[in-house]
């Protein structure tokens, strides 16, 4: 059992995926559908999904008739290519919409990654982005928690918006998904007995449990949040 726990902690995203439904972000499939609606993704729209992971959002876009390509460091499934968000393997002005769900928080080079999206999207095209946000100073959380919650390189809401604008976009719509992140937290609490499971790891488990409680408090206080932004590339 302890070996299984160590494996789960070593790859918190896969562990979360085994508990929650894809797409693995607050709001799930419904949030992706709404984000695509706001970016006017419909039949024939050329869409690039940056950091597409298992490709669930690609399938959602494809189901509404969009022409899709996914970019990921470990591509899998149909219509995906290997690439890094800081140097996208796509041509200038080659897509109408860039979808970037919960991925910019994974790199410290936000400006480079956002500028790359602006390079590949055509003039007047859209960036449809959602991401974790962090307000103020967070406590020093254990590594599996900061990794699983994508907190290592997250920015504030205002910092995220300013970075998008600096990359060459006009922000036209911003939504706060506080209810979605609270619902995701509640779902995890119902499915996982943290105290019983982490109790098997002794002192390390107690430190992780303290970290979980600190992260939950930060969510409740809106220091950890989630937002979505639709922005149009400036001419």
TrEMBL record:
Signal peptide: none annotated. It holds the Pfam family Methyltransf_11. It is an enzyme of class 2 (transferase). Keywords: Methyltransferase, Transferase. PANTHER family: TRANS-ACONITATE 2-METHYLTRANSFERASE, TRANS-ACONITATE 2-METHYLTRANSFERASE-RELATED. GO terms for molecular function: S-adenosylmethionine-dependent methyltransferase activity. The keyword Ribosomal protein does not apply. One of its GO terms (biological process) is methylation. This is Probable S-adenosylmethionine-dependent methyltransferase. Its EC number is 2.1.1.-. Residues 49-128 form the Methyltransferase type domain. The lineage of its organism: Archaea, Methanobacteriati, Methanobacteriota, Stenosarchaea group, Halobacteria.
């Amino acid at each position: 059992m302890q070996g299984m726990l160590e494996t789960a902690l070593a790859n918190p995203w896969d562990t979360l995926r085994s508990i929650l439904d894809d797409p693995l972000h607050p709001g799930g499939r419904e949030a992706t559908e709404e984000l695509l609606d706001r970016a006017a993704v419909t039949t024939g729209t050329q869409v690039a999904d940056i950091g597409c992971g298992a490709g669930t959002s690609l399938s959602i876009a494809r189901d509404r008739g969009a022409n899709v390509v996914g970019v990921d460091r470990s591509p899998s499934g149909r219509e995906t290519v290997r690439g890094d968000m800081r140097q996208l393997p796509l041509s200038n002005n080659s897509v109408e919409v860039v979808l970037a769900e919960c991925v910019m928080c994974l790199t410290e080079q936000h400006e480079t990654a956002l500028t790359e999206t602006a390079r590949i999207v055509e003039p007047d095209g859209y960036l449809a982005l959602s991401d974790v946000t962090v307000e103020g100073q967070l406590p020093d959380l254990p590594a599996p928690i900061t990794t699983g919650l994508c907190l290592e390189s997250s920015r504030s809401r205002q910092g995220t918006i300013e970075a998008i604008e600096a990359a060459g976009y006009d922000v036209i719509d911003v939504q706060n998904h506080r209810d979605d992140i609270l619902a995701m937290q509640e779902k995890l609490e119902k499915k996982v007995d943290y105290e019983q499971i982490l109790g098997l790891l002794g002192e390390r488990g107690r430190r992780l449990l303290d970290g979980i409680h600190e992260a939950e408090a930060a969510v409740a206080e809106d220091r950890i949040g989630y937002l979505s932004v639709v922005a149009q590339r400036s001419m």
